[in-house]
Write a structure and sequence with these properties.
Elements: H1 2-8, H2 22-35, E1 39-44, E2 68-74, H3 83-93, H4 95-99, E3 104-110, H5 112-116
Length: 118
């Protein structure tokens, strides 16, 4: 995603993408409010982990779990911050979601300038 953005020189926002999943919606709403991203892509990877014993304890009402996500975000809020600081911002914002069953997030965090210069 980031390479494609860098090649085109344009930033695309997926922040308004609709979803009926409550946890994904909560993640999207919180990160949009906190980071005001120029791009936010959230991918539910939970299906890849459904066979893990620990994940069997988190069934969704409709059979689709919300335990593992990949999040790619581009935001000016990351300017001047190291990768660890960026990730801590996101983990702090999502603390209630982790308490409610979110198990793992894979993060890719960039500033708009990093996308342009990639």
């Amino acid at each position: 995603m980031f390479r494609a953005l860098a090649q085109t020189g344009r930033l695309y926002s997926m922040a308004a993408a609709s979803t009926s999943r409550p946890l994904e919606t909560s993640i999207r709403d919180k990160l949009t409010f906190l980071l005001q991203p120029s791009s936010l892509v959230i991918c539910n990877d939970s299906w890849q982990h459904r066979h893990h014993a620990a994940m069997r304890d988190h069934p969704a009402a409709d059979g689709e779990m919300e335990t593992h996500f990949t999040i790619e975000v581009v935001s000016d809020a990351f300017s001047g911050k190291a990768t660890m600081q960026r990730h801590r911002m996101i983990y702090a914002a999502l603390a209630p979601e982790f308490e409610q069953g979110l198990h793992s997030v894979s993060l890719k965090t960039k500033t708009p300038a990093e996308i342009v210069h990639a």
